[in-house]
From TrEMBL:
Record lineage: Eukaryota, Metazoa, Chordata, Craniata, Vertebrata
Superkingdom, taxonomy of origin: Eukaryota
Coiled coil: none
GO molecular function, one term: voltage-gated calcium channel activity
InterPro entries on file: Ca_channel_alpha-2/delta, VDCC_a2/dsu
Listed PANTHER family: VOLTAGE-DEPENDENT CALCIUM CHANNEL SUBUNIT ALPHA-2/DELTA-RELATED (PTHR10166), VOLTAGE-DEPENDENT CALCIUM CHANNEL SUBUNIT ALPHA-2_DELTA-4 (PTHR10166:SF59)
Pfam families documented for this protein: VGCC_alpha2
Species per Swiss-Prot/TrEMBL record: Limosa lapponica baueri
Record's protein name: Voltage-dependent calcium channel subunit alpha-2 delta-4
Domain Voltage-dependent calcium channel alpha-2/delta subunit conserved region: 48-134
Length: 167
C-alpha cells in the first residue's frame, strides 16, 4: 500500500463503421496500456538530447517530456509561444473553459432585526419615527373639516335671560 505504482498511459482509438467522423457510430474502442517509463525510454532513444521534445495528446496535455515535472501539464502553460503557433496552424483550436465551481455568489445582505440593538441611537431614531407616524395618523383620524368649513355650524349668541318677577 505504501509503494507507489508507476504511472501508465492508455492510448485509445475509436473504430467506426463509416468514413465520416461526425456520423460515426462507435462499434468498438481499441487501446493498449503502456507504462509511462517504457514510453519515455522509447521516445528518447529516437530524439537528440539538445532539443526540447514533447509528446502531446489531442487535448494539448504533455504525456512525455525531458523534465518529469512537466508531464501531465497543459502544453500552453509550459511553452505558450509554441502552443500559439500550433493554434494558428490549425493543429489545435482555442477552447474557453469556465470553472463555475470557483465562482462566488454575490452575497445578499438582508436586514437584521437585531441592528437597532447595536446602538442606542437606532433605538432613539426608531422612537422618534414612531411618534411622528402616530401623530400623523391622529391628524388623519381627527375630523378637521370643521376648521375649514363652517357651513354646517349654528351661530348663536349668549343672552342673559332675566328670571320672571313674582308679584
Amino acid at each position: 500500500m505504501g509503494e507507489e505504482e508507476d504511472p501508465q498511459f492508455t492510448p485509445l482509438d475509436l473504430v467506426c463503421g463509416r468514413e465520416s467522423v461526425l456520423s460515426c457510430v462507435s462499434s468498438s474502442t481499441v487501446g493498449v496500456q503502456i507504462k509511462l517509463e517504457l514510453l519515455q525510454r522509447k521516445f528518447w532513444m529516437a530524439m537528440q538530447q539538445i532539443l526540447n521534445c514533447f509528446l502531446i495528446d489531442n487535448n494539448g496535455f504533455i504525456l512525455v517530456s525531458k523534465r518529469p515535472a512537466e508531464t501531465g501539464k497543459f502544453f500552453g502553460a509550459v511553452d505558450g509561444s509554441v502552443m500559439t503557433q500550433l493554434i494558428n496552424t490549425g493543429m489545435f483550436r482555442r477552447v474557453t473553459m469556465y470553472d463555475y465551481q470557483a465562482m462566488c455568489k454575490v452575497p445578499y445582505h438582508h436586514h437584521s432585526g437585531a441592528r437597532p440593538l447595536l446602538s442606542p441611537i437606532y433605538a432613539f431614531l426608531a422612537a422618534v419615527k414612531w411618534l411622528i407616524s402616530d401623530f400623523l395618523i391622529f391628524l388623519l383620524e381627527f375630523n378637521m373639516s370643521s376648521f375649514w368649513h363652517s357651513d354646517n355650524l349654528a351661530d348663536g349668541e349668549y343672552t342673559r335671560v332675566q328670571p320672571p318677577h313674582s308679584t
